[in-house]
Specification:
This protein is of the alpha+beta class. The chain has eight helices and nine strands. The protein is 46% helix and 21% strand. The structure holds zinc ion (2 copies).
Length: 213
């Protein structure tokens, strides 16, 4: 078990998720995501580097084996906690995500395995993010970059309150079919279940989709 503070654990988790979705984690991404100053980030990264959790080369951050191990444990706990809260407890996916941030730090490994069993060994969290070890790296197209055609929603990239609220009202839920009718500069016109809607770029960038064959 690590003795890292929760903020430091959160950085490690975020670096892992950036690698997972973008293939690379950069300092600028962390500054933006956590809304902190470059000075704060650099202090945190110094600490993580001295503890052997990350390696830094110029602006790029990479998790070491130890860093990856810790990230995987936290992220698995986070995503399984979300499944427990939505599927078994019946919470909506916004509160589930918020509470999972706290729960991810508390479950012992054997309890997590129990939760995994109770929720039926899922491949992803309710937002479509893979449970570590169960699915390959997430690869898909962002809705903002999609050509007209028929797709399936794969995942909601950032699990922010406004994003989850907006995609839910459009019916853009992982697993759901979405038809892209028009696309211009990242803004797309879509149809989900007979309902047409325009999705602004900022939101379309948060929805990952997969082509259906
Ligand atoms: Zn979450
Ligand atoms: Zn999630």
């Amino acid at each position: 078990m690590s003795e890292l503070s929760e903020p430091l654990e959160n950085y490690i988790k975020e670096i892992y998720e950036l690698e997972e979705t973008k293939g690379i984690a950069k300092v600028v991404d962390l500054i933006e995501i956590f809304s902190v100053s470059p000075g704060t980030i650099s202090k945190a990264l110094d600490r993580l580097e001295s503890l052997g959790f990350i390696d830094r080369k110029s602006r790029r951050i990479k998790l070491t084996e130890d860093g990856k191990k810790l990230a995987v444990r936290l992220i698995r706990a986070h995503r399984l906690s979300e499944k427990l809260l939505t599927d078994i407890i019946g919470l909506d996916w916004i509160r589930a995500h918020e509470l999972a941030h706290r729960l991810e730090h508390i479950w012992p490994e054997d309890v997590l395995d129990k939760i995994d069993q109770v929720v039926g060994y899922p491949n992803t969290c309710p937002h479509g993010h893979p449970i570590p070890g169960r699915e390959e790296q997430v690869r898909g197209t962002l809705l903002s970059e999609a050509q007209p055609g028929t797709y399936r929603v794969k995942m909601i990239v950032r699990e922010k309150d406004w994003i989850l609220r907006s995609v839910e009202s459009l019916g853009l839920i992982p697993g759901e079919q979405v038809v892209v009718l028009e696309s211009k500069n990242g803004e797309v016109k879509i149809r989900v279940k007979e309902k047409e809607a325009r999705v602004p770029r900022a939101l379309a960038e948060q929805v990952m989709i997969l082509g259906t064959q």
